[in-house]
Specification:
The protein is built from eleven helices and two strands. By secondary structure, it is an all-alpha fold. The protein folds into two domains: about 1-65, no CATH class; about 75-195, no CATH class. Strands 1-2 form a two-stranded antiparallel sheet. Helix 5 (about 75-80) packs across helix 6 (about 90-100) and helix 8 (about 140-155) packs across helix 9. The longest helix has about 30 residues, at about 40-70. The termini are far apart.
Amino acid sequence: MMDALIAGNLSPQETAELARGRMRSKIPELAEALVGKVEEHHRLLLRKHLDHLSYLQQAIAEMNLLIEEKIKPYQPQVELLRTIPGIDTVSAQQAFVEMGGDINVFPTEDHFASWIGICPGNNESAGKQRRAKALKGNRWLCSLLVQSAHAVGRSKGTYACAFYHRIAGRRGNERAAVATGHYLSKCIYHVLMDGKPYQDLGADYLNHRGNDSLKKQLLRRLERLGYQVELTPQTTTMN
């Protein structure tokens, strides 16, 4: 469409017909928006912008080739990171490079999360929870994990997705992204430390864990009232 505008040899409707993908559903609106006067200096500026975009795409492609070459010795670790929800190839490469390629320098997952600066805030006084200040850390990796967390929130069928939405329902999407990013940092730590792919707990894990906690809580309350309780699973009968 931009090339057609620069050439100036097509009508607005013909130019709109060049739309692809989801934009094809908006052809009438595009045709209306393309009605106007495109002067020679407009065409020159458009061409300059397209040339600059092509240059940037070429530069990115060259850098990606260099990254692929340099990361080859660490491909097993990158593949492990790619098993984590929300972590694609580019995210895995960035995360591995940012941490310096050696997870063993961090004694625990909490040290790793603290270094990133994505630990949960703890600012409580007189029994009231107040908003904690943002922690200092590796802002690039922190931003990467938050972006990956948002991607997890748009997915389905994983523990991380259920975890994100459970928090988002109570605290909002931004806090859910930070909390899920913290969970992803723990996943990164363990898959690299253990050398094993990520094993998903399943989207229903939180529901089952909630049922178990409720069962234990009710049992303790009955025992404090002096009852001895034996639980027997209910069997369903067919009519």
